[in-house]
Amino acid sequence: MVAPAPRNVSVAERALRGVADLIKLLPSGTVFMFQFLSPLVTNNGHCAAYNEVLSGALVALCGGFCAFSSFTDSYVGSDGRVYYGVVTRRGMRTFSTDPDANAGRDLSGYRLRAGDFVHAALSLLVFATLALLDRDTVSCLYPAMEASERTIMAVMPPVVGGVASYAFMMFPNNRHGIGYQPTRATEDFEHKH
After folding, report:
1. How buried is residue 97: exposed, middle or buried, by Cβ count under 10 Å (0-12/13-18/19+)?
2. Residue 140 and residue 127: Cα distance in Å, rounded?
3. Any bridge partners for residue 83, and if so which?
4. Going by C-beta distance under 8 Å and a sequence separation of 6 or more, which residues neighbour residue 64?
């Protein structure tokens, strides 16, 4: 069977892929958890000392998970189950035992790449921008900035989002980490291209 000829990818399609990669960049569960817990741990921006510690811990924990998720991937086993794991220099180490591992399934194609570090850094940057410029977080951790730096608070999120979107449009992420279930079609496509 002859493989189809590669087609030219339009600018619109690349832009849509970049937006999709930006959506994959920030695990939606992590952002939801931050937005849900932030008003609670910051006391709606009226912080005591323990609220500042809790707020800082929440930002660090959620930011760490955003970065960590860039180093996870998944695949569909022959039994139809999805197996998640952490990518390493030698391949992927799954969280649970896969029956395919004994059958010789090669997971070395899921090796750690330099792009994973770039994606993790951008993920952390985007999350930090969203989290550290959140109204409750600003009121809690650095209240003087809320009044004096409104322009930065308004301009920074779209600028960081635009830079990250452009980077992901140019260097797409093919990983299907925790929360982003692969299909056999996407898995076949990624290994061929």
Report:
1. exposed
2. 18
3. 75
4. none
What does each C-alpha distance from 178 to 41, 50, 80, 107, 113 come to in angstroms?
26, 31, 17, 17, 18
Residue (of 1, 42, 44, 22) closest to 165 by Cα position: 22
Identify whether the C-beta of residue 70 lies closer than 8 Å to the C-beta of residue 167.
no
pTM value?
0.72
What is the rounded distance in angstroms from the CA atom of residue 162 to the CA atom of residue 189? 27
Kindly write down the DSSP assignment for every residue of 100-136, as one continuous string. HHHTT---GGG---HHHHHHHHHHHHHHHHHHHTSHH
Cα 145 to chain center, whole Å? 28
Residue whose C-alpha is closest to residue 38's, from 157, 130, 108: 130
Residue type, 179: G
Name the residue among 63, 61, 66 with its Cα closest to residue 26: 66
Helix axes of 28-41 and 114-132: crossing angle, nearest 10 degrees: 30
Edge to edge, the sheet with strand 72-76 lists: 72-76, 82-87, 92-94
Residues 118-146: pLDDT tens digits? Answer: 888 988 998 899 888 888 888 888 887 76
The closest alpha carbon to 141, from 157, 153, 151, belongs to 153
